[in-house]
Amino acid sequence: MDFDVSEDRRMLADSLNRFLADRYGIEHRNSVAYDAPYHDPDRWSEMVELGVLHALVPEEAGGFGGTGFDITVVFEALGRALNPEPVLAALISARLLVAAGRDVEDLVTGTSRYAAALSEPDAPYEVEDIATEATADGDGWRLSGRKSVVYGGHLADRFLVSARHGDGIGLFAVNADAARVTPYGMIDGGGAAEVFLDSAPAELLMTDAVAAIGDALDAGALALCAEAVGAMDVTRDTLLDYLRQRKQFGRTIGSFQALQHRAVELAAEIEQARSITILAASRLGGDGGSRTVSMAKNLVGRTARLVSEETIQMHGGIAMTWEYSASHYAKRLVMLDHQLGDTDHHLERVMAAYAA
Amino acid sequence: MDFDVSEDRRMLADSLNRFLADRYGIEHRNSVAYDAPYHDPDRWSEMVELGVLHALVPEEAGGFGGTGFDITVVFEALGRALNPEPVLAALISARLLVAAGRDVEDLVTGTSRYAAALSEPDAPYEVEDIATEATADGDGWRLSGRKSVVYGGHLADRFLVSARHGDGIGLFAVNADAARVTPYGMIDGGGAAEVFLDSAPAELLMTDAVAAIGDALDAGALALCAEAVGAMDVTRDTLLDYLRQRKQFGRTIGSFQALQHRAVELAAEIEQARSITILAASRLGGDGGSRTVSMAKNLVGRTARLVSEETIQMHGGIAMTWEYSASHYAKRLVMLDHQLGDTDHHLERVMAAYAA
Amino acid sequence: MDLSFSPEEVAFRDEVRAFLRDELPAELSDKVRRGAELTKADMERWHAILNGRGWLAATWPEEHGGPGWSPVQRHIFDEEAALASAPRIVPFGLHMLGPVLIRFGTEEQKAQVLPRILDGSDWWCQGYSEPGAGSDLASLKARAVRDGDEYVINGQKTWTTLGQHANKIFCLLRTSTEGKPQEGISFVLVDLDTPGIEMRPIKLIEGGHEVNEVFFTDVRVPVANLVGEENKGWTIAKFLLTHERTNIAGVGFSVQAFEQLRALAGRMRRNGKRLIDNPLFAARMAKVEIDLEAMKITNLRMLSDARKNGAPGPESSMLKIKGTEIRQELNDLARRALGPAAAPFPAEMLEGNEALVPADHARNAERYFNNRKITIFGGSNEIQKNILTKAMLEL
Amino acid sequence: MDLSFSPEEVAFRDEVRAFLRDELPAELSDKVRRGAELTKADMERWHAILNGRGWLAATWPEEHGGPGWSPVQRHIFDEEAALASAPRIVPFGLHMLGPVLIRFGTEEQKAQVLPRILDGSDWWCQGYSEPGAGSDLASLKARAVRDGDEYVINGQKTWTTLGQHANKIFCLLRTSTEGKPQEGISFVLVDLDTPGIEMRPIKLIEGGHEVNEVFFTDVRVPVANLVGEENKGWTIAKFLLTHERTNIAGVGFSVQAFEQLRALAGRMRRNGKRLIDNPLFAARMAKVEIDLEAMKITNLRMLSDARKNGAPGPESSMLKIKGTEIRQELNDLARRALGPAAAPFPAEMLEGNEALVPADHARNAERYFNNRKITIFGGSNEIQKNILTKAMLEL
């Protein structure tokens, strides 16, 4: 048993953390995150050069990572810096493309930008219960339907779209210019898009894509857990600093026992969230991997809400302001639960094992 | 709008509280509650003379009460004193007998003792999903089945038993000597019994008893809520006294802010529990009465557990001991949730309205 | 024990309902339902309508232009107004300064200030908190130094809600540094047109502009603007904190939020079913519905006590704590119910051709974040717990 | 990062499993599974079996008769023992006094005391708490006054677990009233046969006899029974509180409790379905299963840190807090699962002709109440939070 991060991964984490601290600090982050196009092309290129995307793809597909721990190392760093760039879209897309036997060279080098368009208004977290329809059209296919809140969709050249055909759920590729794309910014920063498909020409990548989509969403959910752990560590440190420094009633507020106990409870829960994320990373793609990812997404979702709400409350008014960085961490920590399945969605996946 | 208790009810409450304080104090209570027959016949007669049972029955049936507020006044007093006598069995039985058009004179005067035998091992809280079967036998009926944890069953002369017949769920009366009755004591004091019916001769009271049983159980659940409110008031006062007096680290433990905040949260929740019990009492038997009782039983169940656990924790070791009265209140407050439907059972009844 | 309204109260409720049906402009109630931002003109319009009916200053005695309502009538009005999605009353002049002047002001101050609050001539805002004095108001530093028959004010105030609309501000200012910190504080009225005042917006977590900072540099106001005695402003501050405020439990807001949540959960879908049919979500909804039903009664019980005993006790702290917890839980559930659609910025969701969610739900995430304030502002819930502790443990 | 056990660790786990399969008497594991009370003879029997294998004193170094296990090996043993429903080790001699003597005792004390702990000749109990000194141990009053080469002991100790089985007690006693309260405390070994000692049972909330009060009246013990220096007992007390205790998170207990809960919820019925198919109940189970899965890793992470950094830090407080919360939640769910059948006194349920519930579940309500102690004893969770506060806020 060994809880140390491997040397390679530690080096990646160090250089990524350094890059983000130096070149993508919170002020720059906020200026990018809340204004169209919610993206800094130069910094993004630098991140790609650092190997952020290569780390998410296995060697045999041209990357140098792709395991659970590769994903968590990258996303923990992104979470610490609250980075708004579309790395999650790249992770999920790469995983889908590799499963479909496609080349991901253009993706990992940043030449093409993909976004996975899976979620729908009436099926926000579901893989199979979707309405988008695929119809064969000569050699190709045409898709009709609406994909909702597609993260990274505001920047994508190409969408990977799930749709039902006669025999189940398939995965298709659609060029961005074949769809009507309405981009928008998010309350917690970064961008996404609505994708309207009206008989859009599409290329079939996989006929039965349920397992591949499930695996890609597991990887995505794990990434979100790691992102949250990174953001929670920073948030806790901000809170503890504030408790040490802020004075009210002639004492530091950290000397009030009611706040002390709440702060240490919060810190203990963050350690639990870190632990379950480590476990999920170790099992990703293996036995019980999917259920463990759901465990992690549930516990992280619960903890992130607690950390967000308690951090604002214990700060008082200051953390309610845009100017104070903790407010942006708090938003991200809450809104993470709206991506790729919320705490209830994942709890139900964990409960499913009891029905047997 | 008027939140004052009426003069009549206040007088009953005063005399009952005084009687219980003087003649049924905690030491006497413990000596009765934990040893067979879990009953003090003399004190019981005095309670009956005070009008405890009359207050539970409407005038037209020979009592002088029977409304929601009559029930809460009596049971709040019983809860304050942690009284182990089978008043709840009398309430539910009286309500069933009145619904069946039977005379309750012998019940309210204490001449006969009834217990409602409704719960079963595989249907602990359910009215309809029962296994006990009734078969017609000449003019009468015979019942076979097992009724489980029948409160007051250790003392009953006669059982009111629910059983399925060809056309639904009926209510039957069975003499105690026609059943095999295994009495036992309860972890929170008082007694109950297993009732085994092996082709036991029975009298049919109602052919379709579902509504009447539902109403009687509503009355019973309301009574338990009021009992809990009484017990919680005493428990909170015990806790606050302890916080004021107990010293550790050279200060009263009530001066520690972490405990202060928990104590006031607990007090606020008790007020909420009192409020919902008042609301349920006002609606008992009327529009939305059943759903409101379920709201009350759920909230009281949640609160009672909180009060019990927090009281023990904030006391430390002393409230873990048999000798200290709060430990007995804590047990009763938790075990109340095991009677007549637990918090989940009642929450599901509240949720049922959303399905419409 | 009788939980029903008296015939007079029922009649009053019907009167309020009829008034709201007839007089509340649909443009305003639509905005409230959607959680959209109300303009200054919107708020002034609603105040004027209420003032026309004599119902604007619910907490004032009749001789000063109040309606002379009992606490139960006030409760009925608040609940009906919330159910009808009426705008809330801007409280600074009406529920805060008004009662203060009625209790502590000179006859001249009452005569000058109160009518202008009613008719909308003045919009008051509050200068209490400072960057270094939030929960601990007694440590405030902004000072007023006497110079002849003027005070010279220097310092900074913050969290001044809707200050951008105001032309007047009432302030707590330090007039003495001797004795206990509470002892040197005075309550002073200031005209925002006075030279030396600068108001700057504070952008809040969700992006809105609701509160402000106010900077005072050598601002001169007449000594006649002092309310009560010099150095006795703490008494007024405490009066305001424990004063029986209308609707501290926010029951009306919560009732409205619950109805909206129920509609939303009946519309959103998960796994091919309505969200409201999902047992985990429905269980949370049911729990908060139960808490809210209990809160309604707790609120009425405490109103009833207040009617009998005069001053409200520490119970108002209990109402604040539980009431805000319930509101925040409702905001949380509405946010969750939206799923991914909660995340896009509302303006962008609504302005696109296809709305992601119905307009009246678009702002649920915004509202969730904005309403984190309700457990912080106006005496944080921690401060309320300290107040309750003092009362309950007789410390 | 590698969460799997090394080949050596896997081999060790297999060895432990085989040992438990072959050597753990079924009568003992049955009792543990049922939550039945173990007799003194039961506990001694299991100690003797472990001692025969050299595995009894898991925390002792090899030279004193310990197995020389790494923290991970200890963890493996604890988890396997819990899964096999082995009795727990009585900790007072083995996990508390033993390590204290090894660290602070004289050679003579070690030679005299340690072998008798291993072979079961002595049963030690603990004299720490007093009626007026629970969480605040430093305020203890029971005193030892030097008289020649004897101490004369007077006072009272309480919460002495399993004292009814013991023939020896180690005590914290006041030997000086000068300086800070912590400074005048000494750690002294006492033979319970010494005249002047009376032990009285304390009946606990659920009716069991597990703890005792001990009264000392002019009890004379040799000064040679002092461990460490006079007036330096506080160092030893702190050593014990923060000493890396085996299994402070109680993961093994929780794993066992979860498996029992799962079986129970698969058997109990509500509304014609298995309780485990009820979404509200299943959701609670799933949450605690998740918390427990996380706890296992947290425990291993902190063991791994401890292996690297030597002394365990405040993390052991975290393990205590979360570990006990999880255990109590499991106890709560098992109690709820039983429904009305939880309420009859277990002895009566089992002795009747027809059991209400399977024997291994009868004691769930009892266990729930009894286990309220785990967040109180051994440094209450509040004390643990104070310890964590000091470490995290660097106070």
Figure out the total of helices of chain C: 13
- Report low-confidence residues of chain C grouped into runs of 5 or more: none
CATH topology of the largest domain in chain C: Butyryl-CoA Dehydrogenase, subunit A, domain 3
Q: What distance lies between the first and last C-alpha atoms of chain A, to the nearest angstrom?
A: 32 Å
Would you count the extended β strands of chain C for me?
10
**What would the average pLDDT of chain A be, to the nearest integer?**
96
The strand order across the widest sheet of chain C is: 1-4-5-8
CATH C-level label of the largest domain in chain A? Mainly Alpha
Task: Return Rg of chain A in Å.
Answer: 20 Å
What would the principal axes of the Cα set say about the shape of chain A?
globular
Tell me the strand percentage band of chain C. 5-15%
Keywords (chains A, B): FAD, Flavoprotein, Oxidoreductase
Cofactor (chains A, B): FAD
Protein name (chains A, B): Acyl-CoA dehydrogenase
InterPro entries (chains A, B): Acyl-CoA_Oxase/DH_mid-dom, Acyl-CoA_Oxase/DH_mid-dom_sf, AcylCo_DH-like_C, AcylCo_DH/oxidase_C, AcylCoA_DH/ox_N, AcylCoA_DH/ox_N_sf, AcylCoA_DH/oxidase_NM_dom_sf
Structure description:
Chains A, B: InterPro entries: Acyl-CoA_Oxase/DH_mid-dom, Acyl-CoA_Oxase/DH_mid-dom_sf, AcylCo_DH-like_C, AcylCo_DH/oxidase_C, AcylCoA_DH/ox_N, AcylCoA_DH/ox_N_sf, AcylCoA_DH/oxidase_NM_dom_sf. Chains A, B: GO terms for molecular function: acyl-CoA dehydrogenase activity; flavin adenine dinucleotide binding. Chains A, B: Residues 115-182 form the Acyl-CoA oxidase/dehydrogenase middle domain. The complex is a heterotetramer, with two copies of chain A (356 residues) and two copies of chain C (395 residues). Chain A has helices at residues 7-23, 26-33, 41-50, 68-81, 87-99, 105-108, 210-245, 257-283, 289-315, 325-335, 343-351, and strands at 114-117, 133-137, 140-151, 158-165, 168-175, 180-185, 191-206, 247-248, 251-252. By secondary structure, chain A is of the alpha+beta class. Chain A folds into three domains: 7-108, Orthogonal Bundle (Butyryl-Coa Dehydrogenase, subunit A, domain 1), CATH 1.10.540; 114-209, Butyryl-CoA Dehydrogenase, subunit A, domain 2 (Beta Barrel); 212-355, Butyryl-CoA Dehydrogenase, subunit A, domain 3 (Up-down Bundle), CATH 1.20.140.10. In chain A, strands 1, 2, 3, 4, 5, 6 and 7 form a seven-stranded mixed β-sheet that branches. In chain A, strands 8-9 form a two-stranded antiparallel ribbon. In chain A, a hairpin with a 2-residue loop joins strand 2 and strand 3. Chain A starts with 6 loop residues before the first helix and ends in a 5-residue tail after the last helix. Chain C is of the alpha+beta class. Chain C has three domains: 7-104, Orthogonal Bundle (Butyryl-Coa Dehydrogenase, subunit A, domain 1); 123-231, Beta Barrel (Butyryl-CoA Dehydrogenase, subunit A, domain 2); 250-391, Butyryl-CoA Dehydrogenase, subunit A, domain 3 (Up-down Bundle), CATH 1.20.140.10. In chain C, the strands form three sheets. Chain C has a four-stranded mixed β-sheet. The longest helix of chain C has 31 residues, at 279-309. Chains in contact: A-B, A-C, A-D, B-C, B-D, C-D. At the A-C interface, strand 3, strand 6, strand 7, strand 8 and helix 9 of A face strand 9, helix 10, helix 11, helix 12 and helix 13 of C.
